[in-house]
Amino acid sequence: MFTYHMPTKITAGENAVKNSPAELILGSKAIIVTGKTSGKRSGALNDAVSVLDEHSIPYMIYDKVENNPSIESTAEGGAAAREFGADFIIAIGGGSPLDAAKAIAVYAANTPGDDFKLYDIFTGSYKNKPLPMTAIPTTAGTGSEVTPYSILTLHREQTKKSFSSPEVFFKTAFLDGRYIAELPLQTARNTAVDALSHLIEGFTNKNSSPSSDYIALEGLRVLGNNISILKDGRPPAELCTDFLWAATLGGMVIAQTGTTIVHSMGYPLTYHKNIPHGMANGLLLGEYMRRADLEMPWKTDLYLEALGMDSIDEVCALLKALLPCDTVFTEEELTEWTKTSIKAKNVRSCPFDVTRELEINMYKKCLL
Ligand code: NAP
Ligand code: FE
Mean pLDDT over residues 317-331, rounded? Predict the structure, then answer.
């Protein structure tokens, strides 16, 4: 038995935002949640604002979302939304603003206080429904526009942690390849590797199903046709839509399956060493693929064929070319990080048994 649930209505194509006001305007007063540069640089903020102006919808712009948003800062965003009286959210940016918007939607509708504590967001024990949201991704990686997850920095546990609820699926999402055309090259690479990681982790996941596998193979085919281009430079305009679509397909896959230890082991790399999310996954993905291959070699054959690659070694060579990383790690810190990473939920989604020793060995093979 399996289920497939992905309730986000996607509108894709050039000028999707301007051409579909009904999908953008989900209420009478908007808060636009974005980062310092992503909204402006992509052109998405201008497009959204022009539609709101045209329809006389009042809005405020909350552009304080930092990379890897923290739980505290999203609570501030929630307070700003409440104060302004926003009844819907427009999230514009990469995974950081999109994930922040999901938490802001919860905090806007539920004031942290006596009955509802800041950290209760992780257990889903809030009373009021989060505000409705629309997403305009400006990176092609996380697929957050179609997932029920929000990954937040949790300083008190010195890591990142996700919360998940069907109530934080975006109601609508807009895919316009033009918005990723100005991505800095290394961000384009990191985010494409995040998408690759979602597709492979989802395809080899214990929770995978015929529907998620079908979508994963299509995502791998689209990404495999294009990803090598990033070795030489940014994606040309005509391929931006494909990168964005592959990332959204990756999101549709992990919305069903969840991720694996590639993600949970990657979080400390981001928290402690400031390594961007997609790069952190890419540094660990090669060793994950080798271990998954021992359990399900037929799946390796299928995903390599979809990617148009001959071997795991070929995927690893591509990852190496895309992810220059000179960060130095010590055995002590890697061992320490597994104390947290071994507790993550997605340990159970791996196609192989995961112990702390396995995680320590995997870190050492990939990072020392
Ligand atoms: P990001 O942190 O959202 O953005 C990285 C950088 O790129 C930021 O400086 C951002 O600027 C800039 N940027 C974004 N779009 C741009 C554009 N079009 N032009 C120029 N610069 C642009 O990176 P991300 O990889 O997309 O998201 C990573 C986050 O998503 C992590 O927190 C990760 O854990 C999470 N994630 C979530 C899911 C999920 O299912 N929800 C899945 C995987 C990862 P600004 O400073 O303006 O933002
Ligand atoms: Fe990811």
Answer: 97
